[in-house]
Amino acid sequence: MIQEIEKLRKQKDVMQRRIEFCRDKEAIEIVKRLNHLSFYYKEFTVDDIRSCTKLLSKNFRIKCSGDFTNVYKARINQTTVADKLYEVLEEEFCSKVNILGSVQHPHLVAMLGFCTDLKCIVFEYIHGGCLRNVLFTNHWKKSLKLLDLFEY
Fold first, then answer.
1. d(CA 70, CA 58)
2. Residues forming beta bridges with residue 75, ordered by sequence position
3. Can you tell me the distance from the alpha carbon of 143 to that of 34, in angstroms, rounded to the nearest whole number?
4. Assign residue 77 a region: left if phi > 0, alpha if psi is -120 to 50, beta otherwise?
5. Beta strand pairing call for 111-115 and 42-43
């Protein structure tokens, strides 16, 4: 009886390894299929952008330093987003959309869609303010503190 139990345990181990192999093989096939797909982004209409920003209201404009005064905080499909309007030629805007659409990285803000008529790109919204403010304000404060340490 003990020999039969051992035999069944070995069979169970073999079957578990086969199941794991099949799962790994299936996962590899899924990844291969996903790599061949290109990512498509939603093309929003002018009405979509204007309705989510209340007709591009100043109340929804994100205040940042520098030239970035054309960014609006909005809600699309119960998701908070940042709509950035560009004042560029249509060809330049299309190339921006193509470039930003092809770049994906966990440390970059993701593009969710665009509106060609308004020349607007919809990005995920990151809480905590403008990246420029975070980088330069904190950077200069830290630099000044370091300089204070090295004064004679």
1. 10
2. 80
3. 45
4. left
5. parallel
Structure token digits, residue 109: 């803000």
Residue with tokens 């919809």, as numbered in its chain: 122
Whole-model pTM over 0.85:
no
Distance between CA atoms of residues 15 and 8, nearest Å: 10
Range(s) of the domain holding residue 11: 1-37
Whether residues 50 and 80 share a domain: the answer is yes
Three-point CA angle 54, 60, 63, nearest 5°: 160
Record the tokens describing residue 81, joined without a space: 């987003």
For the chain, give percent helix, strand, coil, nearest 5. 50, 15, 30
Encode pLDDT of 14-65 as tens digits.
888 888 887 777 776 665 554 544 456 888 999 999 888 888 888 888 865 4
Question: Do 2 and 74 sit in the same domain of this protein?
Answer: no
